[in-house]
Amino acid sequence: MIKTILAVLIITSSLLANGDVRAQTTIDSTGLSHVIANYNTAIDQQSHLYNGPEYEFYDPLIKGNAYVFDVKTFSSGNVNYNGALYNNIPMMYDINKDVVVTLLYNHFTKISLLSTWVPEFWLLNHHFVRINSDSTGKAALTTGFYDQLYKGANTQILARREKSIQTAAGSNNVESFFRESKSYYVKKGANYSSFGSKGALLDIFKDKKKELRQYIKTNNIDFSENFEQAITSVASYYDHLTN
Asked: Which residues of 54-77 are buried (b: 16+ CB within 10 A; e: fewer)?
């Protein structure tokens, strides 16, 4: 199908370029547009992006949602999929199943991208990277997607965002709901360390702890007000000190 349509496009373009099309045989712009549209549709239907199992939304009776930052509609994003970069793709990130969801070319059917084919993707102004637990040497870091909050010359700050379905006894029945959790990691060289507080982060950066404490005080960095902004700021300054 694709080869046939492509051949028509090539022949038509060649004739137009050489001026060999006579008035009685001229292909009008409407017909050519139709051919191009059919070609694009054929390409879309065979795109490597559309390779994954069908995805279904959750039972609406479950309270909350499974999606990152509670965005439960498709947003435009970019994804590196099996070695190819796809831009402006409708995407959602299900952090309960840890899968990227997109729409087929019919803009109706939902599919889950194969996670092992996704080394990274960009969504909602965040860059997510896939890390395999066996590549870190630490069992505490599970395989999955991590939000790369900061990447510098010597360090990275990563957040693992997850949701799980929980149940609780209600007044008349058992209710289900999504519970969110977050974990934070520093990567220094090839090593990952987990942390959850200002003190734990400074312990990881202990070789510059005194300077970092002064930096935090001078710049009035409040970890309780915006934890993620604070930790990325401290990591950035640590890179500045160690470069």
From this structure: ebeebeeebebbbbbeeeeeeeeb
